[in-house]
Amino acid sequence: MAETLLSVEHLSTIFELPGRTPFSASHELKAVNDVSFDLAKGETLGIVGESGCGKSTLGRSILRLIEPTEGRIVWQGHNLRDLSPRDMRKARRDLSIIFQDPIASLDPRMTVADIIAEPLRVSNPELSRKERRERVQTVMEEVGLAPQMANRYPHEFSGGQAQRIGIARAIVTEPKLIVCDEPVSALDVSIQAQIVSLLKRLKKRLGLTLIFISHDLSVVRLVSDRILVLYLGRIVELGPRREVFANPVHPYTQALLSAAPIPDPKIARQRGRIVIKGDPPSPVNPPSGCVFHTRCPIAREACAETVPPLDPVAPDHRAACLFAEEAMRMAQSGSEPEAQPSR
Amino acid sequence: MTLYAGKREALEDAFLDREMPRGKPRSLTRDAMRRLRANKAAVVSLFVLAFIVLAAIFGPFFIPYDYETPDWSAFRAPPSIESGHYFGTDQNGRDLLARTLYGTRISLTVALIATTVSVIVGVLYGATSGFLGGRIDQAMMRFVDVMYALPYILFVILLMVMFGRNVFLLFAAIGLLEWLTMARIVRGQTLSLKEREFIEAARASGVSTFPIILRHIVPNLVGPVVIYATLTVPEIVITESFLSYLGFGVQEPLTSLGTLIAEGTDVLEVMPWLLLFPGAVLVSLLLSLAFIGDGLRDAFDPKDR
User: Fold this and answer.
1) Which residues of chain A make contact with B19, given a CB cutoff of 8 A?
2) Chain B residues close to A99, C-beta within 8 Å
3) CA of A85, closest CA in chain B: separation in Å?
4) Contact A109 B222 (CB under 8 A)
5) Do the chains contact at B201 and A99, CB–CB below 8 Å?
6) Which of A170, B114, B134, B179 might form a disulfide with B236, Cβ 3.0–4.6 angstroms?
7) Which helix (DSSP H) or strand (DSSP E) does residue A317 occupy?
8) CATH for A1-17+27-224 (3.40.50.150, 3.30.870.10, 3.40.50.2300, 3.40.50.300)
9) What is the DSSP letter of B89?
10) Residue A43 to residue A288: CA distance in whole angstroms
11) Residue A298 and residue A276 in contact, taking contact as beta carbons nearer than 8 Å
12) What's the order of all strands across the beta sheet hosting A78-79?
């Protein structure tokens, strides 16, 4: 693998929730709990998990849009958490984000050109108005927006076009890392494909590294080199895309994959579903030991006591399960979800 | 497979939503103005307001009398076309039309000064407090609460001592009291605005706090601020009338709508025109401002009509 661009070490983001009355004790919500991973230059890491598992919080914590409580974010040799507000603002030219709701992420009172130019004003204040204008035109072309749209306002655009504006803003400073926070889940399926292929094209052309957050496994599979599965703020499995999709180890990953819809009903009928019961437990009061043990089909007593370490199960492939081998056998005994032919 | 190479790209290009919005770019303000023009009451009120403002500015140049020189041939004269005293004269023989025009001038100036001051201070204070949040917000809003609790009249008397008889400074100072409500409204709006994603996008781009407040928060407050400002203007006109009535405001021979009405009330039975004309001007002024404020509210916020 190429050089490491970003390494996240034991990152935790804890929210303080006030108690019911001013006198009762406050609760802690561990939205991100002891997460560590490395990101190589040029790769795409897909982060998946169900609603409320901390995907977005993790993405925003890495960019310090939400202040993490513990851990280190090592970026180009520096811990981002040690930077002063001023240095952090400077570092932001290399770090970018694309949001889920394309219209809400654009200021309704600014024109498209002003919106796209804003990061540029901060990162390159020396640029003249004309140079800035030219740069904006270039990125607009790059993302497939007609130059005449520059003086329009966000509410005049469709969701897909608005997301292109969001992407143009994200790449205008030529960043190295972009966090894509569910960039296509608010869009029509037909538009999703366009935006995904646009992101892939840009990634190749500009040498970007992406963190791609989504709950849509088919989209993640299309763009990611590696997959990180998150459950209640903890990493349960981390591995190369092929490995995770073909041989999921953790029972949660297996269940997640088997819950993904398959377009062909014949194949869909053949596969065995691993159904897990109930809603995820509250992150305010997480289960002891392995956080998944309350819903796990193979849970034993030990699971409620020991927090499973994220151990390697194959090269580059790690899973946090005490009974990983048994889980793997369960997967191979016929209930493994049929891999889709790759598109 | 090679046959299909590039086919997906071609299909994508064909279906790419390259649809262009038509017509001129529509900013939110332009949209609001279009809706305002469709509101008859607001449009009529705009004309009434414009007429009053223009009359107050240019009217005094076209009439042969001024507001302080008595006409020795006409004391307590009722309105008449022949004498040229269209609104009549008062006990001192001064032309009421001239006095009403000057009074409107003063009232409007005072309202404008106080409103401007209260908008500037209120918006900046409220937006800062709401955006920074936490303890700073708490401290700033408690200060507002304390100011609210202090009696208004006490402040006016204090300010009178400080500024003496300068009416305009006095009203600039009244603006400094009026901003409290504006700050509360703006803070509330800011609290909801700052959770919007475009603010987070600006932070992700590295924009620092005060530029975010000025470039993203304040422009998005235009709706509620404009509406509240149009409602502040009549409030100040009334405050001024009240203060003048108490003798704190504008002093003789200068006059204001409030002073004229106060004087007119005393002699209502013998010289009703002294109350009727200034009263009519004040009422139409307040009504038209209220309709415009209402129209603006609907125009900026078509959802909660």
Assistant:
1) 158, 161
2) 197, 200-201
3) 9
4) yes
5) yes
6) B114
7) strand A317-319
8) 3.40.50.300
9) B
10) 34
11) no
12) A27-40, A4-17, A70-75, A78-79
| Per-residue pLDDT reduced to its tens digit, A25-54 | 778 888 898 899 999 999 999 999 888 888
Chain A environment of B202 (Cβ under 8 Å)? 107, 118
pLDDT at B136: 92
A95 interaction partners in chain B (CB closer than 8 Å): 204
Residue B29: closest CA among chain A residues belongs to which residue? A109
Residue A319 β-bridge partners: A237, A311
* Cα torsion through A180, A181, A184, A187, rounded to 10: -140
> Hey, are the CB atoms on A148 and B20 less than 8 Å from each other?
yes
For residues B213, B215, B217, B220, the Cα torsion angle rounded to the nearest 10 degrees is 160
| B:151-210 residues touching chain A, CB 8 A cutoff | 196-198, 200-208
Contacts of A169 in chain B (CB under 8 A): 201, 205
Residue A338's pLDDT is: 43
| Residue A341: predicted pLDDT | 46
Residue B183 Cα, gap to closest chain A Cα (Å) = 21
Give the pLDDT confidence score for residue A229 in this predicted structure: 93
Say whether the ipTM exceeds 0.90.
no
Please state the domain extents for chain A: 1-17+27-224, 247-337
For position A135, what pLDDT does the model report?
A: 92
DSSP single-letter state for residue A124:
-
Contacts of A191 in chain B (CB under 8 A): 17
| Angstrom distance (rounded) from CA B213 to CA B33 | 25
Which residue on chain B is closest to A105 by alpha carbon? Answer: B198
B206–A122 CB contact, under 8 Å: yes
Q: Which of B198, B205, B219 sits opposite A119 (nearest CB)?
A: B205
| Region of residue A23 (phi > 0: left; psi between -120 and 50: alpha; otherwise: beta) | alpha
* DSSP label of A236: E
The whole-number mean pLDDT for each consecutive block of 10 residues of chain B, a chain of 305 residues, reads 54 54 70 81 90 84 75 70 70 78 86 88 92 91 89 76 71 78 91 90 90 89 84 81 74 78 79 80 87 82 53
Low-confidence ranges of chain A (pLDDT < 70): 1-2, 271-273, 331-343
What is the distance between the alpha carbons of residues B271 and B280, in angstroms, rounded to a whole number? 15
Interface membership of B21 toward A (CB under 8 Å): yes
Q: Are A56 and B200 in contact (CB under 8 A)?
A: no
**In the prediction, which pLDDT does B305 show?**
41
pLDDT of residue A60: 92
pLDDT digits 0-9 by tens, A239-289: 999 988 888 888 888 888 887 777 777 777 776 667 777 777 887 888 888
Of A88, A107, A160, the CB nearest to B198: A107
Q: Which CATH number is B48-63+84-300 given? A: 1.10.3720.10
Contact B2/A at CB under 8 A: no
